[in-house]
Design a protein that fits this description.
Blueprint lengths: L28 H4 L2 H6 L8 E2 L12 H13 L12 E2 L6 E8 L3 H6 L5 H6 L2 E5 L6 H5 L33 H6 L6 H4 L3 H6 L14 E2 L12 E11 L2 E11 L4 E6 L6 E3 L2 H4 L3 H4 L6 H11 L5 E4 L2 H8 L1 E2 L3 E3 H4 L10 H9 L13 H25 L2 H13 L6 H6 L5 H7 L4 E6 L12 E6 L2 H11 L5 E7 L5 H18 L1 E5 L7 H9 L4 E7 L6 E6 L2 H11 L3 E2 L2 E2 L1 E3 L9 H9 L7 E5 L5 H6 L8 E5 L12 E6 L2 H11 L7 E4 L4 H8 L17 H9 L5 H17 L5 E7 L2 E3 L2 E3 L1 E7 L11
Parallel strand pairs: 3-15, 3-26, 5-11, 6-10, 10-12, 13-14, 13-15
Antiparallel strand pairs: 1-2, 4-29, 6-7, 6-9, 7-8, 16-18, 16-21, 17-18, 19-20, 22-24, 22-25, 23-24, 26-29, 27-28
Keywords: Exonuclease, Hydrolase, Nuclease, Repeat, RNA-binding
GO molecular function: exonuclease activity; RNA binding
Organism: Piliocolobus tephrosceles (Ugandan red Colobus)
Length: about 775
């Protein structure tokens, strides 16, 4: 048996009916904290959803707060506290969690190569800052405290189960009774329905990933006396993922009718000997291929055959075959909260047999197939009530406690402890974490219990393995590693990035007459947003003004509103300075406006201190408003005269913009260009990094040469290539997947760079990402 089977299932979430609650207008970020209950009381939703508002003032999310979200995504609100910094609604509709970690990259890299990373920024609506990384970033975000590092988590107990582990059980609350009732059931009642097979990712005809799968052609009429066949497969890890190395098929009565070793088509990277028992020596002389066992199995099975397995979906995927009539013992013996019992536990608790003993090399596929078949036959013979009376949940919990050498503790209390790790949360629901990484970057997470680690040679191999392995696990961490930039290049990039932002927030306006009303001109340009500086330019024949705005939206609004207008009879031009850093600013502004995080956000200038209260007095005009973001002056704490409004949709934002810039409100505004986390970053610009607008910055010579020769390892080219690759991988994820892309930041003796996080939930309609 594969080791991760008992822990890699994606169990169906229970859907709770919610009563309808009236719509409410939420006016500010702090008011959103109270909207958890409002959202949860809305009518039943079919999709998990993330809030668009981060509660942190500076949009920086700590590693501990990130861990809060990951734990909540695994268990939901009934077992762990809700995240303190964001909202995840309808967590019970999540299917998977996937975290991509781009080691060596930071927020600086993201905005330096903003245009090149279009695939990623368009796919994720939510972005947030991360503090510079610690010595082990991954251990921090999954909550591996020192006492909980590898080797400290409970180990599986060997030997017989204690008889005193049984406890009184309320049969009516037993999940087996709730699903099957208390009376005996026939074979057909135990078959998985097509909907259940879809939910648990069984290969089905017509599914895109099953196009080349072979049908068993078993389409006979199924009855309670149809023949049962126990099936178990062993796999190895190849360059293309997991491939079949052994298949065992056992018929009723315990007779093994098929036991074949199989030579994989691709290069073997890991024989997984400790689990499969397969070694290079065993497999070397084998000539049997996958197509041979497919043909043999197809010939053996009668038209009404029922296949029985434990996490049978993985076996059928390894066989690349589709079979319509299946019983899965990991689902037949239902456990609380959608968890699954391990085959070894069921063999001992139900049949009194020891399997997968530690003194034996790997699992015996024939033995496992026979046990699986006997478990199905026991269920059919004795019925659900007999199973429920065994109180398997109490037996399993007692075993885990005794194996850990601990006193019994309340599970909920343990999970709600702030030091509980993501690994412990996964273990509590019988699931396992997949960790894909380069071997040299594995770190402490790789050696942790309940973590299936696959070490690769290169980023390319990590990507290839991710395509194959991610669908098999409910929680995956995929780590790519990129060479850190030299301190000199990092400093230069930092300087140029910050200067670029200053320049695109600056406009030149003119020409003006020498007798122009300077006070009126200043008042005119200040009506679009907060001004950092305004100077008269006298180097030209006629005077011009140079205005540096605090926010990019104000500069863009001034250009859109004033360029080409008549001032004192003269047509003026309003434009940005032209330097090598602003040559692509028009493209950049267009891309910023189309950024998924800015969709539904508007910028307004001219708001008063009572603006929020005025909005709340007219809620019907602003349905869909999620938050009002009112920046404050860091020196005096007073509210500034501009704000950002966040709406659920672009349409709601456009409707509000039309109203607020109309004659009744008399505000200036446009669609937003800059997300909140970027404002927080730009506020920290050191004065020495700025330069007078228009001065030339010369890129380092080696970078000029690299761009001219279009070397593939140049940072700009690498960002474009890997952004597209990861974007395609994201597109292949199943709907309902919570996905995070983390750029941890960098830390060295030369200084630190803060990180950046992107997150979102893959939706059904996201079949492709624009630009791929």
């Amino acid at each position: 048996m594969e080791p991760e089977r008992e822990g890699t299932e994606r169990h169906p979430r229970k859907v709770r009916k919610r009563r309808q609650a009236p719509n409410k207008l939420v006016g500010a970020a702090e008011a959103m904290k109270a909207s958890w209950d409002l959202e949860e009381s809305q009518p039943e939703a079919k999709k998990a959803r993330l809030s668009t508002i981060l509660f942190t003032d500076n949009c920086e999310v700590t590693h501990d707060q990130l861990c809060e979200l990951l734990k909540y995504a695994v268990l939901g609100k009934s077992n762990v506290p809700k995240p303190s910094w964001c909202q995840l609604f309808h967590q019970n509709h999540l299917n998977n969690v996937v975290v991509f970690v781009l080691q060596g990259m930071s927020q600086l890299h993201f905005y330096r190569f903003y245009l090149e990373l279009g695939c990623l920024r368009k796919a994720f609506r939510h972005k947030f800052r991360l503090p510079p990384p610690s010595s082990d970033f991954l251990a921090d975000i999954v909550g591996l405290q020192t006492k909980q590092r590898a080797g400290d988590l409970p180990k599986t107990m060997e030997g017989p189960l204690p008889s005193n582990a049984k406890a009184t059980v309320n049969l009516q609350n037993d999940p087996i009774i709730q699903k099957y009732g208390s009376k005996k059931v026939g074979l057909t009642r135990c078959l998985l329905t097509k909907e259940e097979m879809r939910t648990f990712h069984f290969p089905l005809q017509g599914f895109p990933e099953c196009e080349n799968f072979l049908l068993t052609k078993c389409n006979g009429s199924i009855a309670d006396n149809s023949p049962l066949f126990g099936l178990d497969c062993e796999m190895c890890l190849t360059s293309k993922g997991r491939e079949l190395t052994r298949i065992s098929l056992v018929a009723e009565g315990g007779c093994c009718v098929m036991d074949e070793l199989v030579k994989p088509e691709n290069k073997i990277l890991d024989y997984l000997t400790s689990f499969s028992g397969i070694t290079k020596k065993i497999l070397n002389p084998v000539t049997t291929k996958l197509k041979d066992v497919q043909r043999q199995l197809k010939a053996l099975l009668p038209p009404d055959a029922v296949l029985v397995g434990h996490s049978l979906d993985l076996d059928l995927r390894a066989l690349k075959m589709i079979h319509p009539y299946v019983i899965d013992t990991s689902l037949l013996y239902v456990r609380e909260q959608g968890r699954r019992f391990k085959l070894k536990f069921l063999a001992k608790a139900i049949l009194g047999k020891d399997i997968q003993c530690p003194d034996r090399l790997g699992h015996d596929a024939t033995e496992d197939a026979r046990i699986i078949l006997e478990l199905a036959q026991y269920f059919l013979k004795y019925g659900p009530k007999k199973i429920a009376e065994l109180n398997l949940e109490a037996l399993a919990n007692h075993q885990e406690i005794q194996a850990a050498g601990q006193e019994p503790r309340n599970t909920t209390e343990v999970l709600q402890h702030p030091n509980t790790s993501v690994l412990e949360c996964l273990d509590s629901v019988g699931q396992k974490l997949l960790f894909l990484t380069r071997e040299i970057d594995a770190g402490e997470l790789a050696s942790s219990r309940n973590c299936q680690t696959i070490k690769c040679i290169s980023n390319k191999e990590v990507l290839e393995q991710a395509r194959v392995e991610i669908p098999l696990f409910p929680f995956s961490i995929v780590q790519f590693s990129f060479k850190a930039f030299s301190p000199i290049l990092t400093e230069e990039m930092n300087k140029r990035m910050r200067i670029k932002w200053t320049e695109i927030s600056t406009v030149y306006a003119g020409p003006f007459s020498k007798n122009c009303n300077l006070r009126a001109l200043k008042r005119l340009f200040k009506s679009f947003g907060p001004v950092q500086s305004m100077t008269f330019v006298l180097e030209t024949h006629q005077p011009h003004l140079c205005i540096q705005y605090e926010v990019l939206e104000a500069a863009q609004l001034a250009i859109e509103s004033l360029d080409g207008i008549l001032v004192d009879g003269t047509c003026i031009k309003v434009q940005r300075p032209v330097t090598e850093l602003t040559l692509d600013c028009e493209t950049l502004v267009n891309e910023l406006e189309g950024d998924s995080e800015n969709q539904g956000s508007i910028y307004l200038f001219g708001v008063s201190e009572t603006f929020k209260e005025q909005l709340l007095q007219e809620p019907r005009l602003f349905l869909g408003l999620e938050a009002v973001i009112l920046p404050k002056d860091l020196k005096n704490g007073k509210q500034k005269k501009y704000c950002f409004l966040k709406f659920k949709s672009f349409g709601s934002a456009q409707r509000a913009l039309n109203i607020l810039t109309g004659k009744d409100w008399k505000l200036k505004g446009r669609h937003a260009l800059t997300p909140r986390h970027l404002h927080a970053w730009l506020r920290g610009l050191p004065p020495e990094s700025r330069r007078p607008a228009g001065h030339r910055v010369v890129p380092p010579p080696f970078e000029q040469e690299a761009l001219q020769t279009l070397k593939l390892d140049h940072p700009k080219i690498a960002a474009w290539r890997w952004g597209r690759k990861i974007g395609k991988l994201y597109s292949s994820l199943c709907p309902g997947t919570l996905c995070l892309i983390l750029l941890p930041g960098t830390k060295s003796t030369h200084g630190s760079l803060s990180g950046l996080g992107l997150m979102g939930i893959k939706e059904e309609e996201e079949s492709t990402i624009s630009g791929l």
